[in-house]
């Protein structure tokens, strides 16, 4: 018995929603750039990593996120009086570490969903989310779900302060293209958070809330132009721009070419440009590749919202029809 689950990359913050908004992405060319975790039957628990970014992970798999998720998942099963089955867990690491594309969340979500399917969905979504949130918090240094939620359920998610409903699904701006550029360099999430102020001036806090609320309203009205105009980060970007060489110049170029919005994906260094025109998205793709990608490890993808979230990509007969 074996099951493989894919979890998409995501944009955390989405400029106006620091630690509160997250968007799952799917390249329009069809590539699965997020992580895949395969869980199969074994005589004893095992953990392995492979893939194009496996070299960036600790050499001891027990120091990897999949080990932590597996342990937390087993603890959750035992708390419900169930016995975990021995499993071999293999992470195919396709997302670069410290990229700002929800790399750790993709691993965590794919692993938790695969383990749950392997155990015939023994845990509820609420229980599974708790496992994922705790594992992600250990990695990123803070309890926030803006990458976990979209990687899990897809689409555009708004985090809430309520434990019984930690996030709500917003209408995806399906007419928008999100052109994401990863320069090929790493930026540690905790280091990126360390440059942020501990307090905000009242006028800035008011503007932040106004922009977030107006963006949510624009999503419900499917006002693409209005939503794009609101996507300005007044909280984190002014402090993080110093950590992203070339970003300020790139943003100016993209704005001159009519981008609806330009922003930092999560903590960076990946950045995004937004447009409602495919031809313009293709022009942005070329510009971002030439002006922002720093080495052969970097990439640019034209994306739309991934509305599926975590999903089975290799499914044994007994699990066909199950929803990841």
How would you describe what is shown here?
With 324 residues, the chain is of the alpha+beta class. It folds into two domains: 2-171 and 307-319, 2-Layer Sandwich (Ribosomal Protein S5, domain 2); 177-305, Alpha-Beta Plaits, CATH 3.30.70. 35% of the residues lie in helices and 21% in strands. The protein has ten helices and 13 strands. It has helices at residues 65-79, 103-118, 125-140, 148-153, 189-194, 202-221, 224-230, 237-240, 247-256, 278-291; strands at 2-7, 10-12, 21-27, 35-41, 46-50, 87-92, 156-159, 167-170, 177-182, 261-264, 271-275, 299-305, 311-314. Strands 2, 3, 7, 8, 9, 10, 11 and 12 form an eight-stranded antiparallel sheet that branches. A five-stranded mixed sheet has the order 5-6-4-1-13, with helices on one face. Helix 1 links the parallel strand 5 (46-50) and strand 6 (87-92). The longest helix is centred in the middle third of the chain and has 20 residues, at 202-221. The radius of gyration is 19 Å and the shape is globular. Residues 315-324 have low confidence and may be disordered.
Low-confidence stretches: 315-324
Do you know the CATH architecture of the largest domain? 2-Layer Sandwich
Instruction: Give the proportion of residues in helices.
Output: 25-40%
Q: Can you count the helices? A: 10
Calculate the terminal CA-CA distance, rounded to whole Å.
16 Å
When the domains are counted, the total is 2
Shape: globular
- SS-derived structural category: alpha+beta
Instruction: Report the average pLDDT across residues.
Output: 93
The helix/strand series, from N terminus to C terminus, equals EEEEEHEHHHEEEHHHHHEEHEE
Q: Give the CATH class of the largest domain.
A: Alpha Beta
| Number of DSSP strand runs | 13
Biggest sheet architecture: 8 strands, antiparallel
Percent strand equals 15-25%
Radius of gyration: 19 Å
Enter the CATH topology name of the largest domain.
Answer: Ribosomal Protein S5, domain 2
